[in-house]
Amino acid sequence: MNDVVIFYGSNIAFQKIIPSTECRNLTDLIMEIDTDSRSFILEIPDKQLPDRKKVKVKNFVIESSEYSGVKEHVILNFANFLGKLDIENLYIQNPPISISSQIEKIYPQTKIVKQEYNTIKKDDLVNLYNSYERKIKGQKKVLDGLIQALYPLTNSNRSKPVVILFYGDTGLGKTETAHAISSVIGEKLFRKQFSMFQNNQFATYLFGGAYYEKSFAKELLERESNVILLDEFDKAYSVFHSAFYQLFDEGIYEDQNYKLELKKSIIICTSNYKSLDDIKNKLGNAIFSRFDSVIKFEDLSISAKVEIATEMFNTKYDSYDSTEQQIIEDYSIKEKLIAACTSCNNAREISHLIDNTFSLILFRNLIKNKDLDNWKSNIY
């Protein structure tokens, strides 16, 4: 075999290193070999049967999504499977430990390639500082705390992640802040919503189950970004916190099928806790002490609500066509609506109030015109 490459990283990055032609995948070859194995051979006495010919493969390319579609015995006896093939080049993405250990044992020349992710630089921090308040309103203290938390990553001698906990009421800009960080770095945010997982599902997801099941480790390997958002981290049962100890301390995560290392990553956990005492009581000191920074999102001031409402009103108004814009203008509601938004608790409520008001106005106009059309049709 000429080249044997084990690649760890996203599918987009993997596609850049594999050949563009003459490629076969795992699913295709398993089906071919299984078909050959089921074929009947007529045995003739005193006649030696010819050895089965190996399937020739110029470029054997295995994407990480394929492991879930094959039987477990193929995974556990991967070396035997490879022995049935005459392979020129092998490219394999994010293999489970059981496969990578077999490959490295039989092919000492194996190359290990890991995706290089963007890391935050001093210029990125300056860009974040200058652009943050245009995107997230009323959180100046958050910005100051964020810069302090992220600055250590600009040190070339640091490799471990920075782990930050955002807390405060919903709709204040926690998720938007994570998006703002990934935007200045130039990568797509990796986001996991922990509230989606139930008790038994979460255990399998975190600690690993069968090869065909989703796992946190596998999804981390496939991520496209070094900015990781664990949304609603407080929804995870405390019994599962131990799964994150080594990740938060050293940037290493391991389950029964995969192992990976996160270098210079930004790990953001969000929660709706209202105070530090609440966090410590609910999460416990073991996990709380592993956060490099804990940043509170304050309730919005009146001026912040007015600023958010004004921007949202203009943006949503611009999304309608000229006829609908004229209908909205005829009601002269902008000032009253923005004033009403100051009674909302967060940006999400402000958005809903403006959307609902516009919808009500436009629908009332629609009904009025329909009634007029019916009246005209009765006359003529």
UniProtKB/TrEMBL annotation:
SMART domains assigned to the protein according to its UniProt record, in alphabetical order: AAA
SUPFAM superfamilies: P-loop containing nucleoside triphosphate hydrolases (SSF52540)
InterPro entries in alphabetical order: AAA+_ATPase, ATPase_AAA_core, ClpA/B, ClpA_ClpB, P-loop_NTPase
UniProt keyword annotation of ATP-binding present: yes
Record-linked Pfam families: AAA_2
Domain AAA+ ATPase: 160-301
Keywords: ATP-binding, Nucleotide-binding
Keyword flag Calcium: no
Protein name, UniProt field: AAA family ATPase
Organism of this sequence: Clostridium aromativorans
